[in-house]
Amino acid sequence: MAYKVRTVANPAWLSRIFLSGAQSPMRTRGVSSILILAASLAFGATASAETLRYKWRDAEGNLHYSDSLPRNAGVLGYDVVNGQGILVKRVAPAMSPEQRQAAKEQAKLENQRQSELERQRREDQQLLAANPTEADLLNMQKDQLLTFDGQIKSVNISLESLERSLTNLLGRAAEHESAGTAVPKKLRDQIAEVRSNIDSQHAEHDRLVKERATTEAGFGAQLDHYRALRERIDNH
What we know:
Layout (H helix, E strand, L loop, with lengths): L11 H7 L6 H25 L3 E5 L5 E4 L6 H4 L1 E4 L5 E5 L5 H34 L3 H45 L6 H33 L1 H16 L2
Antiparallel strand pairs: 1-2, 1-3, 3-4
Helix pairs in contact: 5-6, 5-7
C-alpha cells in the first residue's frame, strides 16, 4: 500500500517552525521527532511505490499475484509489475520443441525475405544508375537483343565450320572402308570429337535462343518497373 505524505524536499510547514525563533530543548526534541517521522513515511511511500510483484497463470489458467515465483515460472511465463500494477517486464513461456522449430523456420523465411528485398533494392539502384532516362533503358534493351543476335550468329558460323570438318572426316573414313582397310584410330577419335563439339554448339545455340526470348518477354515488365521507380523518385 502506497502512502501519500508531504515531501521533505520542500517542507514549508517545517521551515516555519525553525524561523519562529530560538527553540526550547523540549521543542527541539519535538521537531526532531517530526522530522524522523516525516522521513520514515516518505521512505515507506517510495519503497512501497517501487515494490515489484509477480503475476502469472498456472497450468489451469488461474491468475496469481505474489512476491515470489513458483519453480515452474520459467515454463509458464510471468509478468513483473510495480506497486501500481504497471507492467515492468514480461517473460514469455518456454517454447516446446515444435514451437522452437516453427520459430526457427519462421526466422529462416524472414531472413530470405529480407535478402530478397535487399537484392531487389540493389538491382533497382543499378537500373536507375545505368539508365537515367527511359530512352536509355529502351536503348539498353535493344543492345541486349543485339548482343544475343551476335552470339547466336557466332555459334551458327562455328556449327557450319564443324559440319564441314565432319563431312571431310567422314569422307576420309569412307575411303578406308571402300579400300577394305580399317579406319585409323586417330581418324575415329577426330570424328568423335567433332561430333561432340557439334552437339555442344547446338545446345549453346538453343540456350541462347531461349534466353533471348525470355529476356525480350521481360522487357515490358522491366519498363513498367522502371517507370514506377522514376515516379517514386520524382514525387519525393
